[in-house]
Design brief:
The complex is a heterodimer. Chain A has helices at about 1-15, 70, 80-85, 90-105, 115-140, 145-165, 190-210, 215-220, 230-235, 240-245, 250-255, 275-300, 350-355, 360-365, 370-375, 380-385; strands spanning about 30-35, 45-50, 55-60, 175, 180, 320-325, 330-335, 345-350. By secondary structure, chain A is α+β, with helices and mostly antiparallel strands. Chain A has a single domain, classed as Orthogonal Bundle (Cytochrome-c3 Hydrogenase, chain B). Chain A has a 3-stranded antiparallel β-sheet with strand order 1-2-3. Chain A has a 3-stranded antiparallel β-sheet with strand order 6-7-8. The longest helix of chain A is centred in the first third of the chain and has 29 residues, at about 115-140. The model of chain A has no long low-confidence stretch (mean pLDDT about 85). Chain B is mostly helical. Chain B has 2 domains: about 10-90, no CATH class; about 145-415, no CATH class. Chain B is built from 18 helices and no strands. The radius of gyration of chain B is 24 Å and the shape is globular. The N and C termini of chain B lie far apart (about 65 Å). The chains are: A alpha+beta, B mainly alpha. The interface between A and B is medium-sized, with 37 and 33 residues.
Chain lengths: ~375, ~425
């Protein structure tokens, strides 16, 4: 037993977590960051600082736990959709996408081809909305208020598109098992292309005012370096993994729906510091514009968008695990069905929680002033992690 | 698309300002002036123009308003007026209010926002008044375990210290509240109090985040005070005087910014650091230490500190103008003497016969314009720059800026010994 504990301590020291004994605590100051701290979100972590250096970090998630997984067991497969998108209301197309994929596998439905394209478009739009929101908060965390306002404003471009598509600005409940809720409206394609080309111009301006700013580079370059081995060992995902030099994207690794017909590159960087983790989402947004153009181009002009389903669809007893690439990385659903219309068990594997595990590893040894830049570069959405 | 800001209609803006001025004039002439006359009626005034002000004389003044001009002349030359109203605190507070409004609108335009819009109907011009009223109405919360005397005293000391800096700034020849011969040293001595107040306040508020903020303020001051002094030292070398009025006068044909651009740059950066403005707002870094040393402030305690810091913005911009931009120097655009119009009656009062001094008005105008320009430059980094990190800040202060100031000091010495500036120099005014 003791040996096991020592082994654990060794392991955690290897990962950079220092074990601080209480008796040596006099020169250390314990700071509680969150959940009412402007730099934390719905999340709390306690850090110990020695002067300006962080020597210990203890993440404490769970403030916005809603029991989504348990709630799923009392509702049937269709009723589950509106509450499942609550953890990430601005990326709701992706969090319902993988649920739909898993349910389709369980029930055995084939989605019409046009429906698959519209689903992919919705998920790309939501990825943009999420990433812009993330970028806005990253900007204000570094004290750059213009970078807060610009992405929050440009988010409206995609919110308007999703509004036209689904009728709701956020929480669309649009991707459902069997396809999408409704067909796209008239003139959507032109509007979408217009907004994308305007947004690509804006991305250049973001680079000018924020990413090439010498003070931004000074603050993020070489800060919180996550090496390739550590990134794989800790199991981080999404842009954090790609910033550490691993070109891994679920859309490329396990293409779902129509993504194997789309030609795109997996954007990654090798340095693994905060700068790279801030840069990869920007590259992703550019690539996403590219993907959206192709999707709009290749989409069939007409056809069904939704497979016919029973009011309470049910399949044979079995299990399914499907995942998609969300704004924060791999987002998977593991669903076990006992043959009834309600799922027997639902487990959600979210990117946020897996990225949060790297936080103590990166924060220990960095300065207090690096805390916001490291923390938010991990692409962490507390509400999603708590589920 | 909702990303487009509402169009700014300059014509409407100007028109509404004219309306506002009209209403202010009407209210002043109907309410304000009678009120002043009533108050003057009860004030014991010293003999002016060889006459003792009696109620009878005052009645004669109401018939001939120009007879109040000597009193006006007397009042604006008292020390109290200088300290409290014109070159002193009220003028600084007015400019600070203008600064806050301009900052909000300017930053909003930069960030595709609209900024204050509804309050006061004209582009939210009364928003500041509303905010002030709100702050006064709010409850002041003192944390348990706080050191109450210091917690109360620090905000007042902050404003008082900011006002003390303002008192040393000459706005026009002869228009300075305290014309001391060691003016520039006095300014730096007073500026040295600010981090002390921040540290005391943060310590007194018995909380961790303010304490870190106060320590950061102290670090920042130590790193930037030395380049701040040294950049002003090269100006002193060139002008040969520590008196701020003399420094401004010594720049008569050519402003020092042409000879000492590096020094001006260092001074500007250091004043940004001194003012704790972005990118040097580390003591108030929101995402790291909540609100830094202001975390426990509430209500009017916060309001006073904000007022003090904006007065400080004015003071340091004015100091920049005095040291590098020739103070009040500028082409004479106001008439030196008003044309001999009516010397009696209401028109005589409005044309300010005998009180008006064209040179002074011109000096005040140019000084204000230059100061507002420097304030605008100080507001600009807030829109384009993220916050700097403490170690980079210290490195910048200790390594880069000090070296730059020394380079500039050698330039200043070369200018003196090369016979270009200084007494009997090539470019000195004779």
């Amino acid at each position: 037993m003791e040996k096991n504990l020592e082994h654990q301590i060794d392991e955690s020291e290897k990962l950079g977590m220092q074990i601080v004994k209480e008796s040596e605590d006099d020169r250390l100051m314990t700071l509680s960051v969150g959940p009412q701290h402007p730099g934390s979100g719905h999340f709390r972590f306690t850090i110990k600082v020695d002067g300006d250096y962080v020597v210990h970090c203890d993440p404490d998630p769970g403030y916005v736990h809603r029991g989504e997984e348990k709630m799923c067991e009392y509702r049937n497969f269709i009723q589950n959709i509106p509450h499942l998108e609550r953890p990430v209301i601005h990326d709701s197309a992706n969090i319902t996408y993988s649920y739909s994929l898993a349910v389709e596998e369980l029930v055995g439905i084939q989605v019409p081809r046009r429906g698959q394209f519209i689903r992919a478009i919705a998920s790309e739009l939501d990825r943009q909305i999420y990433t812009l929101y993330w970028l806005a908060i990253y900007g204000i965390f570094l004290g750059h208020s213009t970078m807060f306002m610009w992405p929050t404003g440009d988010r409206e471009l995609f919110i308007d598109l999703m509004d036209a598509l689904s009728g709701a600005r956020v929480t669309h409940a649009f991707n459902i098992p069997g396809g999408v809720r409704n067909d796209i409206p008239d003139g959507f394609k032109d509007k979408c292309l217009r907004h994308i080309s305007y947004f690509e111009k804006r991305l250049k301006e973001y680079e000018d005012i924020f990413y090439t700013n010498p003070l931004f580079i000074q603050r993020t370059e070489g800060v919180g370096i996550l090496t390739k081995e550590d990134a794989i060992g800790l199991g981080v995902t999404g842009s954090v993994l790609r910033a550490s030099g691993v070109p891994y994207d679920i859309r490329k690794a396990e293409p779902y729906d129509v993504y194997n017909e789309i030609d795109f590159k997996v954007q990654y960087m090798k340095s693994g510091d905060s700068l790279a983790r801030a840069y990869v989402p920007l590259l992703d947004m550019k690539e996403s514009c590219h993907i959206m153009r192709q999707l709009l181009d290749k989409m069939p002009e007409s056809g069904e968008v939704r497979a016919k389903l029973q009011p309470t669809p049910k399949g044979p007893p079995g299990e399914a695990y499907r995942r998609v690439e969300s704004g924060r990385g791999a987002l998977g659903y593991y669903i076990v069905s006992d043959g009834s219309p309600k799922p027997y068990r639902v487990k959600i594997s979210v990117g946020s929680f897996r990225n949060m595990i790297a936080l103590p590893h990166l924060l220990v040894g960095s300065k207090l002033a690096d805390m916001p830049s490291v923390y938010w570069s991990l692409n962490y959405w507390p509400v999603e992690a708590d589920r | 698309m909702a990303t487009y800001p509402q169009r700014f209609r300059f014509g409407n803006f100007v028109a509404s300002i004219i309306w506002l001025i009209l209403w202010i004039l009407i209210i002043v002439s109907l309410v304000g002036l009678p009120l002043i006359f009533i108050i003057l009626f009860y004030l014991p005034l010293p003999p002016v123009n060889g006459e003792v002000l009696t109620p009878y004389l005052f009645l004669s003044m109401m018939v001939d308003p120009t007879r109040t001009l000597p009193i006006l002349h007397f009042i604006i030359h008292t020390d109290l007026f200088k300290v409290a109203v014109f070159p002193g605190f009220s003028f600084a507070a007015l400019l600070a209010a203008v600064t806050i409004f301009v900052e909000r609108k300017f930053l909003a335009k930069m960030q595709l926002r609209i900024g204050p819009l509804y309050c006061g109907k004209i582009e939210g011009i009364l928003q500041l008044l509303a905010d002030g009223l709100k702050l006064i109405a709010k409850e002041i919360i003192i944390p348990s375990g706080a050191d109450k005397p210091i917690f109360w005293a620090a905000p007042i000391a902050f404003v008082a210290t900011a006002a003390a800096v303002v008192a040393l700034i000459p706005v026009a020849p002869g228009w300075v509240a305290a014309d001391v011969n060691v003016g520039i040293i006095a300014v730096f001595a007073i500026l040295g109090f600010f981090p002390l107040i921040a540290l005391l306040f943060s310590w007194a508020s018995n909380s961790k985040y303010p304490f870190i903020g106060g320590l950061r303020a102290l670090h920042q001051m130590i790193a930037f005070e030395i380049p701040f002094f040294l950049s002003a030292l090269s100006v002193v070398i060139l002008s040969g005087s520590l008196n701020l009025t003399d420094i401004a006068k010594a720049q008569h044909p050519y402003w020092y910014i042409f000879f000492l651009p590096i020094s001006a740059f260092v001074f500007f950066i250091s004043s940004l650091a001194e003012l704790e403005r972005i990118p040097f707002d580390l003591p108030e870094a929101e995402s790291e230490i909540v609100a830094g040393w202001l975390t426990e402030t509430s209500g009017m305690i916060f309001g006073l500190i904000q007022l003090g810091s904006y007065v400080k913005v004015y003071a340091l911009s004015a100091l920049f103008v005095v040291l590098f931009l020739g103070g009040w120097a500028g082409p004479q655009i106001f008439p030196k003497e008003l044309a001999h119009g009516p010397t009696a009656g209401l028109m005589g009062l409005l044309t300010l016969q005998g009180v008006y001094n064209g040179v002074t008005v011109n000096a005040i105008f140019w000084f204000t314009v230059k100061t507002l320009g420097i304030i605008m430059l100080m507001l600009l980094p807030r829109g384009i720059s993220p916050r700097i990190r403490i170690d980079i800040l210290l490195h910048t202060g200790w390594y880069k800026l000090i070296v730059l100031t020394f380079i500039n000091m050698f330039i200043a010495l070369a200018l003196i010994y090369g016979g270009i500036l200084g007494p009997g120099g090539l470019l000195t005014a004779h």
